[in-house]
């Protein structure tokens, strides 16, 4: 089934920045300047400057802030300021009825995987797994350009060399994915993505190897990994060290769990908690070509 593609942006469009999860701990002036340089009018939500414990305001404030921009037809995209934790606390309080009639791009990653997954699972609407204002300061020019191109409708193609040996093959299909921890947390909920015949990408940060092993085995036992068209393993960064070593790298852990499946698998894809976090259009049709150490992902 085809997904709904929100209208691409054009110069002069209004976009909103909101924080559905953790509060900002530093200014995002650089990101605002970049977005304005792209020709966009930037509206700042109340949650951007709000603070309640570790959150960007209370659950009620964050939900109301996001809701007003979901409903406002003059806002053409919503960019989440940062991740952290907290989006799952407000997702069930949001009303997407206006959004369904007037879809717009939702942008973010990490904890924002909750919104991205819900947009596909319940609304069948494409969204962007991409850099957020909080990460713009350290983002590579390539990653920011990939976000600009995705928002403004330029078709993209990514090619890179992986360090870990891939499982070669070609496939095409709808691209889904996001943060492994959040995708596992959403299993059994109305926000759970359908993995069947999809090309899945995964990333995570700050996890132990045993935790990655546990989450992937949970997905495997639940039957979520057996019917994929392809698997893209992004950055698993800042792996937490153990007093007693686990004995495998994150890539080795993952490969052991999925190697028996027939679909192609690539590693070290530039997506996730890294400076070169390339924009992934969740819900888009893509073609994936994987060789032993060369990978090409093309939006079609």
Automatic annotation (TrEMBL):
Q: Where is the active site?
A: 110, 203, 273
Ranges where the LD-carboxypeptidase N-terminal domain occurs: 15-129
UniProt KW keywords: Carboxypeptidase, Hydrolase, Protease, Serine protease
Task: Specify whether Protease is a keyword of the entry.
Answer: yes
One GO BP annotation is: proteolysis
* Matching Pfam families: Peptidase_S66 (PF02016), Peptidase_S66C (PF17676)
Has the keyword Hydrolase been applied to this entry?
A: yes
Name any one GO molecular function: carboxypeptidase activity
Q: Which residues form the LD-carboxypeptidase C-terminal domain?
A: 172-288
Family statement drawn from the similarity comment of this UniProt entry? Belongs to the peptidase S66 family.
Identify the PANTHER family for this entry: MURAMOYLTETRAPEPTIDE CARBOXYPEPTIDASE, MUREIN TETRAPEPTIDE CARBOXYPEPTIDASE
Q: What is this protein called?
A: LD-carboxypeptidase
Q: Which organism is it from?
A: Pedobacter changchengzhani
């Amino acid at each position: 089934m085809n997904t709904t593609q929100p209208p691409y942006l054009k110069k002069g469009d209004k976009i909103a920045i909101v924080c559905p999860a953790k509060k900002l701990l530093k200014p995002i002036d650089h990101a605002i300047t970049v977005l304005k340089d792209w020709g966009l009018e930037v509206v700042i939500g109340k949650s951007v400057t709000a603070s309640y414990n570790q959150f960007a305001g209370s659950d009620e404030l964050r939900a109301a802030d996001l809701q007003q921009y979901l409903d406002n037809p003059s806002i053409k995209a919503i960019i989440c300021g940062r991740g952290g934790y907290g989006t799952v606390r407000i997702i069930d309080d949001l009303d997407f009825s206006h959004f369904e009639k007037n879809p717009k791009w939702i942008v973010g990653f990490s904890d924002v995987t909750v919104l991205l997954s819900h947009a596909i699972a319940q609304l069948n609407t494409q969204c962007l797994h991409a850099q957020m204002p909080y990460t713009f300061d350290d983002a590579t020019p390539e990653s920011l350009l990939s976000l600009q191109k995705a928002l403004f409708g330029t078709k993209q193609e990514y090619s890179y060399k992986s360090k870990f040996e891939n499982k070669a093959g070609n496939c095409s299909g709808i691209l889904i994915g996001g943060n492994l921890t959040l995708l596992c947390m959403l299993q059994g909920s109305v926000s759970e993505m359908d993995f069947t015949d999809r090309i899945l990408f995964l990333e995570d940060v700050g996890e132990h190897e045993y935790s990655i092993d546990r989450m992937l085995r949970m997905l495997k036992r639940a039957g979520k990994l057996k019917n994929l068209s392809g698997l893209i393993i992004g950055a698993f960064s800042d792996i937490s060290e153990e007093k007693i070593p686990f004995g495998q790298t994150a890539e080795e852990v993952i490969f052991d769990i999925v190697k028996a499946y027939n679909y192609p698998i690539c590693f070290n894809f530039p997506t996730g908690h890294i400076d070169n976090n390339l924009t992934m259009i969740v819900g888009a049709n893509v073609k994936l070509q994987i060789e032993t150490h060369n990978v090409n992902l093309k939006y079609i």
